[in-house]
């Protein structure tokens, strides 16, 4: 199966057919129940088919204590920020996009 990628986030073409276009926007929303702000924190990851993160990791505004507030085993690590690796975020988006393209291709084959 030969594929052509204009950008890492689209469009995905196979046999002269676009199985999905360019990812226009991808983001993470973080809800913190201890915050007075009812709106989630939103972190833009991709826009117009390109990853827009500048650093190697993304601090999502939470600490380990937010996930395990009453866990004594967390101890001193409670104040450690929770970060996501930029490459893993890109990989998750690319994997979801490929799964979408594969599903669409398989559905096309089953329908014809």
Write a short abstract of this structure.
This protein is an alpha+beta fold and 112 residues long. 27% of the residues lie in helices and 36% in strands. It has a three-stranded antiparallel sheet with strand order 1-2-3, with helices on one face. Strands 4-5-6 form a three-stranded antiparallel sheet, with helices on one face. The protein has a two-stranded antiparallel sheet with strand order 7-8.
Annotate the secondary structure layout:
Elements: E1 4-7, E2 10-14, E3 17-20, E4 25-30, E5 41-47, E6 50-51, E7 57-63, H1 64-67, E8 81-85, H2 86-111
Describe this structure in words.
- The structure is a single chain.
- The protein is α+β, with helices and mostly antiparallel strands and 112 residues long.
- It has one domain (24-111).
- Helices cover 27% and strands 36% of the residues.
- It has helices at 64-67, 86-111, and strands spanning 4-7, 10-14, 17-20, 25-30, 41-47, 50-51, 57-63, 81-85.
- The strands form 3 sheets. Strands 1-2-3 form a 3-stranded antiparallel sheet, with helices on one face. A 3-stranded antiparallel sheet has the order 4-5-6, covered by helices on one side.
- Strand 2 (10-14) and strand 3 (17-20) form a beta hairpin.
- It is elongated.
- Mean pLDDT is 78; it is low at 1-7.
Q: Spans of 5+ residues with little confidence (pLDDT < 50)? A: 1-7
Global shape: elongated
Largest sheet: 3 strands, antiparallel
How would you state the average pLDDT, rounded? Answer: 78
How much strand? Answer: 35-45%
SSE pattern, N- to C-terminal: EEEEEEEHEH
Tell me how many strands there are: 8
Distance N to C terminus: 19 Å
Integer tally of domains: 1
């Amino acid at each position: 199966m030969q594929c052509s990628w204009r950008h890492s986030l689209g469009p995905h073409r196979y046999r002269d057919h676009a199985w999905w276009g360019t990812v226009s926007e991808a983001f993470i929303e973080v809800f913190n129940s201890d915050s007075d702000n009812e709106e989630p924190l939103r972190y833009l990851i991709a826009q117009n088919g390109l990853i827009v993160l500048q650093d190697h990791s993304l601090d999502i505004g939470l600490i380990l204590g937010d996930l395990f507030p009453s866990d004594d085993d967390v101890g001193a690590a409670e104040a450690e920020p929770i970060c996501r690796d930029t490459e893993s975020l890109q990989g998750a988006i690319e994997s979801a996009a490929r799964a979408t393209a594969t599903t669409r291709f398989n559905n096309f084959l089953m329908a014809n």
